[in-house]
Amino acid sequence: MAISRRQFVLQSAAVYTALASIKVNALAKAVEETGIKDLYKHDFHIGTAISGSNMRASDSSFLGLVSREFSAITMENSMKWERIHPTPERWDWETADKFVDFGEKHNMYMLGHVLVWHSQVPDWVFQDEKGKLISREALLKRMGSHIGNLAGRYAGRMTAWDVVNEAIDEDKGWRKSPWFNTIGADFMDHAFNFAHDADPKAHLVYNDYNMQNPAKRAFLVDYIRKAKKRGVPIQGVGLQGHVGLDFPNIQEFEDSIEAYAAEGMRIHITEFDMDVLPVAWEFMGAEISTNFEYSDELNPYADGLPAAVEQRLNDRYVEFFKLFLKHRDKIERVTLWGTGDGESWKNNFPVVGRTNYPLLFDREYKRKPCYDAIAALKK
Ligand code: GLA
User: Fold this and answer.
1) Among the options 69, 76, 166, 332, which is catalytic?
2) Closest CA to 300 of 225, 368, 356
3) Of 48, 140, 240, 307, which is most buried, counting CB atoms within 10 Å of its CB?
4) Domain assignment of residue 217, given as a range
């Protein structure tokens, strides 16, 4: 059937518009499905920590964002001793099981956090029914059975475990924790051996904060050397990476990456976030038993981040990610300690009730300029 010139032009325009919109939709979809993890996929995993409430809520838009943007996940709190094993007989598996199912479904790098730590562990672990400290042998038995149950339940599914967290004190050697005080310095060897027995395929990590501290670095390097001679299955070191605009010294941070890697360790940046608020203390770490009084002076950006501070945040993110890229051959994973600024512990630590901006997504889960800045490093 013959059509007029006018009809031909109109039909062609309609076909063109339809094709253009298919192309735009396909592009939009590709951008939407591409996350920061894809940009860095030839370098290292990019991860996030998921809170128990977010995991249990199973909100598809939040979990969709996580699986689109990240290739590695950690439970923020739900696998810690006090949460998963609150009393001698009770195990609360529900949240951790959901986490492992979710990670498996999306083929993610799953980090179990954490088997042995001095914090967020119930007192009963170290005591008998009368509140008296138990013996070394009894505590080793409890440690072994906790690790055996927990790492054993997810054996073959969990990619890696934070086996021991924060066992070293700056400048003082072993932290005088209940683990150290009752068992002695070999508690760490035992923890790694128990974890390896429970899940021989899992990659086993020692994790700590202030890892740029030269004395801490020297102590850990010495431990790793000796432990490896004893056959202790330690394979990775986690630098938590709770950093700020002015700390730590980036050269010292790099020295530590190199020093641990030189001992054959894979490097993990395990809990990265960047504090932009006034430092309420001299001490720069993450000893979570410390708290400070709130004051407005300590909370200057409650109504938004000034452009100049946002710029410093972006530049500092870029500085660290350039360092991570430089050492991409040593680094296994860079995990952010949360996804959106609103969920970060940094709003409540070391001062409760502040407004902080430490992560890659804002309070509405929109990508922030620091996200774009580190994405741009890969474009
Ligand atoms: C330490 C722990 C984490 C978390 C942070 C604070 O870094 O390893 O599990 O508790 O403190 O949120």
Assistant:
1) 166
2) 356
3) 48
4) 39-376
